[in-house]
Amino acid sequence: MKITDVRIRKVAREGKMKAVVSITIDEEFVVHDIKVIEGEKGLFIAMPSRKASDGEYRDIAHPINSSTRDCIQSLILEKYQSTIEAAAVE
């Protein structure tokens, strides 16, 4: 699996959610609405989710193992940081 595109949309309002991201996998499959969130220990990603009838949120799409999640998170956060740095220069 190779992530072939990462698109960052910064969130304009203040708060813990910093951006919404779409990734393309192998130029064939897209996952929208991945969130970049500022937590107590720094930035992390939250996969797209939906509120279930019991009030809990359940991921709609997510990696099966932690190494894949770490790979996706690292790539997204690197792209987010470069987007923030580029915007600061403009």
TrEMBL record:
InterPro entries: SpoVG, SpoVG_sf. Transmembrane segments: none annotated. Keywords: Cell cycle, Cell division, Septation. Could be involved in septation. HAMAP family: SpoVG (MF_00819). Belongs to the SpoVG family. This is Putative septation protein SpoVG. The gene is spoVG.
